[in-house]
Amino acid sequence: METILEIKNLNIALSNGVKIIKDVSFAIKSGEVVTIIGENGSGKSTILKAIMREDEGQKTIAGAISYCGGKNILQMNENELQHFRSTVAYVSQRDDYNFVGKRMTVFDIMMDSARLYSAQTLTKDDIRQLFDKYQLRIYDENSGKPLFYEKSSPAKLSGGQQRLLSIISSVAVRQNAKLFIIDEPLNNLDFKNAKRVSNLITKIHRENPEAAILLVTHCRIFPAITRLISIEKGAIVPNEEAYRCFNCFGKADNDGYYEV
Predict the structure, then answer these.
(1) Single pTM value for the model
(2) Which domains does the chain have, with CATH numbers?
């Protein structure tokens, strides 16, 4: 199996010299769905941000991070970094749509993501089909009208709807990517939408079986996960525990899908 992502001796320190990530090394191969587990503040999101070169600020970062055997991401220039980012399906922990203009719509967000990733142009019908394919087109039970659709203003969506937008615009639009990195996919979601997101990840994994998926999550409802990496106080600790999917929101079927 091809090694999609490899991290070697990653060390991250704050400006005061305090190390927050200590000699972290791991690799993810094609077809793996890996989750990083650990307590709040243990460094999980910090590792994902380092992979994407996000929020570097006053931190000192050392080590090597390679994507498909290529150049160390930590040494990439701005053009190389932007190209790398455009090839990855990445969802950060926070959804911040306050920066978008008032005329910006869900359609625009998804269209921009598709254009950046593969220079493709999505039509409104394409977007509707994506929402339907991944069961993310949600309707009001009383009126039957869609609650979340391409003409909505992202800044006016609820927290849960913004989370769904981040996931579908970064994951579903880039369903053929080699690497998916998703930080806390269930933030702000109710149990039905949590199941929808789990189903999306399962479907992506089944349709793109050579891809590698890296998750940070506290909730073990994802049947697709194949391996755990445990982090404590910024360092990887031995963990021989096999991943077990909990039935918090009901039991998934034999194919790994929840009924929604």
Answers:
(1) 0.93
(2) 1-88+178-260 (3.40.50.300), 104-176 (no CATH)
